[in-house]
Amino acid sequence: MTTTPAPPGDDHGGLATAAPETGDGRTSEPAGDSAARPREQMPPWLPRAVLMILGMIIGFMLLRWAFGHLRGFLMDLVIALFLALAIEPAVDKLARRGIRRGVATGIVFVVVLAVLAAILAAVGSLVVDQVANLARNMPHYVQSLLDWINHRFHTELTMDKIQGGLFKDSNTVQGYAEKVANNALGFGQAVIGGLFELFTIGMFTFYFAAEGPRLRRAVCSLLPPAKQTEVLRAWEIAIDKTGGYLYSRALMALVSAVAHYIFFLVLGVDYALALGIWVGIVSQFIPTVGTYIAAALPVLVALTQSPADALWVIVFATAYQQFENYLLQPRITSMTVDIHPAVAFGSVIAGAALLGPTGALIAIPATATATAFLSTYVRRYEVNDHPLAAADTKPPKPATPARVSGPRRYFQNRNK
Q: For residue 209, what are the contacts with CB-CB under 8 A and spacing of at least 6?
């Protein structure tokens, strides 16, 4: 009888001993084995991930805090960048004629400021005269209003009674004086802040336009050659579209101002030149609602002369708007910025929702730039013939072949 030797290290004489089972069918291990087994360690990537998440949260909070405090300054930079893109074509033309770029930028600035000063002087004279007329005729207007109230409601109101009721208490007068003083102080602070903001925008606009090539070289030096080409292409498209948008708007504003000035002059409306400039600028450079705001002031001025004149102003403004929408604007924008009216309207609403008035002003050139840039990477295909995709235009008529004389036909056949 042979016996199988026990394997080395087996203290049970070669008999395998099974681990005792627990009540649920699982095997239990001796207490000594569980104590000798090492504890589970933390994954080595977990501390780094926790630190990374904490760093991202802290960085996001810092960026949010910084953006909240620098929002106004960043908006000034955005406005300055788009203004620099708008004047850069003119600066480039002067620079190609041998004028130093800084001097060329200064010349463009002087011309633009002179035009703005002339416009403000013309419109400012209208505002000052209207305010002076209102102050001079205010007693007459108040007396007419009191007469209407007394006749309508059978009262006996007079100027003396109203003044006595308003100023019988010295505290009332003191309260009015304090409100006027506070409003004047706030208005002065707003004016100083607005002038400083205009100075900041003008300074950065001058820098972006005068140092445009150097700025682009500095940006491209941080990128590989393939990326440099894309950045320069996007920059070129932005200059083309932004400048084209502003120049087309300026041209349409000029045409609108001249047309309305001639009409106001023929109609005999006061301040015809100032009103024409007002309509031309406001209707073109205030998106969406500029047309209605521009027409309101001439209608009010004409209404002080005659209701019929106000009606004629409304009719002419409506007719000119149709002429501009269907004839003038398509011809001008086809050479500069050509985007669908619905896309333009939606971009203005989105820009105003994101950045306020600044976003509304730069929405259209920004959309045109993005559309032109993406069109170079989007591949278009021929559309299959289908009633849902049928074009509104009629198919062109086939061209009639030109008659060819005998000698010319001979040489054409010989060349074939």
A: 84, 87, 88, 91, 105, 108
Q: Which residues of 223-254 are buried (b: 16+ CB within 10 A; e: fewer)?
A: eeeeebeeeeeebebbbbbbbbbbbbbbebbe
Among 216, 242, 241, residue whose Cα is nearest residue 229: 216
Q: Is the dihedral of CA 404, 409, 415, 416 positive or negative?
A: positive
What pLDDT digit, counting tens, does each position of 51-105 carry? 999 999 999 999 999 888 888 888 888 889 888 988 898 899 999 998 999 999 9
* pLDDT surpasses 90 at 376: no
The secondary structure of residue 17, as a DSSP letter, is P
Do 275 and 297 touch, CB atoms closer than 8 A?
Answer: yes
* Tokens 């730069």, residue located: 362
Mean pLDDT over 96-116 rounds to 91
Tokens of 77: 């930079």
| Residues ≥6 apart with Cβ < 8 Å to 345 | 288
148-175 exposure pattern, b = at least 16 Cβ within 10 A, e = fewer: eeeeeeeeeeeeeeeeeeeeeeeeeeee
CB burial class (10 A; 0-12, 13-18, 19+) of residue 130?
middle
Measured between alpha carbons, how far is 226 from 330 in angstroms, rounded to an integer? Answer: 37
Instruction: Locate 84 and state its tokens.
Output: 């620099």
CA dihedral 111, 95, 240, 282 (to 10 degrees): 0
Q: Choose among 133, 256, 319: nearest CA to 311.
A: 319
Average pLDDT score, the chain: 77
Compute and round to an integer the Cα radius of gyration of the chain: 39
Give the CA distances from residue 371 to residues 81, 138, 228, 339, in Å, rounded to whole numbers and listed in that order. Answer: 19, 54, 20, 9
**Residue whose C-alpha is closest to residue 121's, from 256, 257, 262, 278:** 278
* Cβ–Cβ < 8 Å for 205, 215: no
Q: For residue 13, is pLDDT > 80?
A: no
pLDDT of residue 120: 83
Q: Distance (Å, rounded) from C-alpha 50 to C-alpha 117? A: 59
